[in-house]
Design a protein that fits this description.
The complex is a heterodimer. By secondary structure, chain A is an all-alpha fold. Chain A has 15 helices and no strands. Chain A is globular, with a radius of gyration of 24 Å. The chains are: A mainly alpha, B mainly alpha. At the A-B interface, helix 1, helix 2, helix 3, helix 6 and helix 7 of A face helix 1, helix 4, helix 5, helix 6 and helix 7 of B.
């Protein structure tokens, strides 16, 4: 999912930039509407809306329905529907687990996003400062990390951090940290999260860096020259020219990253399956383990729905940011 | 503005270190895949392999059902991308070129759909697919992947369609084309880079998808490559050579597509933008 959404922003900015000085796309399309074309746009939209409603909308409804059912192994096999009202929610919300996992998810997301945004921004600014050859080299590295499929990446990270013959433990041992020689990285909560975070940050920096660099190239050179003429130093130029220009972009990107990290599933599942002792379960993993693993499908659906609601809140906030910036585009 | 020697050196030095850090995991995957086992299971890592072997690729290739799984992955991914492109072409044309009631809210629907948390919807989808008696089939996977990439495809293509000058289409219509003809003859050819870029990213999403296939297709012959790869290591014990070869086989198509098409796609994006 992560990579999928990435280029849309590039595309969007590109498309928007292209219309500079022109009225937004949709607005002037209307004037040309001919009589008799009235139904055409709706006919064109039907396939897209229909499949979205059927394959995205209906599963959401189904999810809501399941969350009000007592659905365990027995009911599943016998195909019986047992409604049990708000009991799943009661159990989830009054239990300790859900809140612990929610807090963990928030901390995990926060740590990842802070790292991604700071490092991504620094790399992006570095790209803007490099010469052409060096920039291309770094770009290649970024694209490789970006393009690496998640499951392939997590397999590689398991190998890098393998307790026997893993290259990370070897280096740490050689650097003098001898207790790390056969360290089992997935043996404790913190070290497992460390590996997962490192992988997510590694894969996410390119998106932020490349887009941020693209954004800096749109800042008019005159602004820098004017600032330099006024005697502004590097830091002053950054805070008064570069940063104000990038702020809307940074704002939107931060939110996008929050959403992506919050729902990160394969990264954690392939490395630890939520272990050890379910200590690295974030909300999506928790819903999966509780629902599918422990076969409390109704409970899992309730956790899912709560997670979806949190995601919906995040998404609508993100869209508000984006739409405010690109009001013309709609 | 003149910069000191230090000011000129540190960006390049940092860039080199960053490059190494970014590339190392990818490099380590490939180099492990080509190293003889003796160079993998060793107390001191062999940083630059001198002996090259294809043994691990053979192991991965001869793993049970490997070719079936490759075929599964290709089928599901290609069909999902093609279907979503077709559906998106209609929708994006309407959204970019026509004005109608509900247009804005439809765009909003797709923007929200683009962020849909598929990862947490797997339980409901599992129930639906089970009730339809379609577990371990490629049909539901194809359909759901299609919808996963559809919002992005629509929104991106909309930008490309909007970037094609209206005048071209209008002059074609003056010359006697109907609107559908004008679309096929004028807009479609100009959309080629856009279609390529969009399908590239759709391809990546579908090729990588993990949670859904994890729950829906448990039969060994019904899996796709990401699921196979995630279980490869536990099946093959600690055969890291074979595991890295499997990871390489899975990653190569995407890496190649990305590196080769990215420039084309990006230049396609900017071409469209300048023309706008």
């Amino acid at each position: 999912m992560a990579v999928q959404t990435d280029p849309s922003d590039v595309a969007k900015t590109a498309a928007v930039r292209g219309q500079d000085g022109e009225p937004p796309v949709g607005q002037h399309g209307g004037n040309k509407r001919k009589p008799g074309i009235g139904a055409a746009p709706y006919l064109l939209m039907i396939p897209a809306l229909a499949v979205t409603a059927l394959l995205l909308g209906y599963p959401l409804v189904k999810n809501a329905m399941l969350s009000f059912q007592n659905l365990n192994m027995g009911q599943l096999i016998q195909h019986v529907t047992e409604w049990n009202g708000f009991k799943n929610y009661q159990e989830v919300l009054t239990g300790e687990d859900f809140w612990r996992v929610t807090l963990r998810t928030i901390v995990f997301t926060g740590a990842n996003v802070v790292l991604i945004m700071i490092l991504g921004t620094l790399v992006g600014l570095l790209l803007a400062r490099l010469g052409k050859k060096m920039r291309l080299t770094l770009m290649v590295g970024l694209v490789l990390a970006w393009a690496m499929p998640i499951v392939a990446a997590s397999t590689v990270f398991q190998w890098l951090f393998a307790s026997r013959f893993g290259v990370v433990n070897y280096v740490l041992d050689k650097l003098g940290w001898h207790s790390m020689a056969d360290f089992n990285w997935t043996g404790s909560q913190f070290s497992t999260f460390f590996v997962v975070t490192l992988m997510i940050v590694w894969q996410s920096i390119p998106f932020v860096a490349i887009n941020l660099y693209a954004a800096t190239t749109t800042i008019a050179k005159e602004l820098y020259e004017a600032a330099a003429l006024d005697g502004a130093g590097t830091w002053k130029i950054f805070t008064s020219v570069t940063f104000p220009f990038l702020r809307p972009f940074l704002y939107a990107t931060t939110f996008l990253e929050v959403i992506w990290v919050f729902k990160a599933f394969p990264q954690i599942f392939t490395i630890s399956e939520g272990g050890p002792n379910r200590l690295t379960e974030t909300l999506p993993i928790y819903a999966f383990v509780e629902g599918v693993g422990n076969q409390h499908y109704g409970m899992g659906a309730a956790i899912s729905l709560l997670t979806i609601l949190i995601m919906l809140g995040l998404t609508s906030y993100y869209l508000r940011i984006v739409l405010k910036q690109e009001e013309d585009e709609l | 503005m003149k910069r000191s020697l230090f000011g000129r050196i540190w960006p390049n030095a940092t860039a080199i270190i960053l490059f190494a850090a970014l590339v190392f995991p990818v490099y380590w995957m490939f180099s492990t895949a080509f190293k003889p086992t003796g160079d993998i299971i060793t107390e001191t890592p062999v940083w630059f392999p001198t002996d090259i072997t294809f043994e691990h690729f053979k192991t991965a290739y001869h793993a049970p059902d490997f070719l079936t799984l490759v075929r599964n992955s290709l089928t599901v991914t290609l069909l999902a991308v093609v279907f979503s492109l077709i559906i998106a072409l209609f929708a994006s044309f309407a959204l970019a070129r026509m004005r109608f009631k509900g247009r804005k809210s439809m765009i909003l629907v797709f923007m929200i759909a683009q962020m849909a948390p598929w990862e947490v919807m797997v339980i409901a989808i599992y129930m639906l697919v089970r009730d339809a008696d379609m577990l371990n089939s490629l049909v539901p996977l194809t359909l759901f992947y299609m919808v996963m990439v559809l919002p992005f495809t629509i929104l991106t293509l909309r930008g490309y369609v909007a970037a094609v000058p209206k005048e071209l289409e209008e002059s074609a219509m003056v010359d006697g084309c109907t609107r559908p003809q004008a679309f096929v003859k004028v807009i479609l050819p100009l959309l080629a880079p856009g279609l390529m870029a969009t399908s590239l990213f759709g391809f990546i999403t579908a090729w990588n998808e993990f949670p859904l296939v994890l729950i829906l297709n448990k039969d060994p012959e019904a899996k796709t490559l990401p699921l196979w790869l995630s279980q490869f290591q536990s099946q093959f014990g600690d055969d890291w050579g074979a595991t890295m070869a499997a990871a390489s086989i899975f990653a190569i198509p995407i890496l190649v597509l990305f590196v080769f098409l990215q420039r084309k796609a990006v230049s396609g994006l900017t071409d469209g933008a300048v023309k706008g």
